[in-house]
Amino acid sequence: MTTEEAAKQQYPDIIPEKVYRTLPALLREPCARFTDAEERDLFLFGALGVISGMLPQVQGLYFGAPVGANLFCFIIGNYGTGKGALKWAYAIGDAAHRHRIKMACEQQQQYTRAMMQY
Fold it and tell me: How many Cα atoms within 13 Å fall on the side-chain side of residue 15?
């Protein structure tokens, strides 16, 4: 038995395949691009953390107190354990951030033109 096979027996895949099939398209499609199960799991953990930070207005009640949707991820590991997949989770947040900046600039320009006409 190889070292990798022994590790798989000791540490099976964390997220079952069933979960990936039921994800929304925003997460299912990028997850499908990963061929390595560990990298795919790390990407999903990271993406959930990034996306939760983009939902400040989402709240629920827990024992009558409002609770936000923020998840905090802290992922550590040795070299070559697939942490590079997290850069793609970052890319989701970066794309949303750039879109918001673009929208804010357009709104600022519209406001400036309206003020000039006023």
Answer: 17
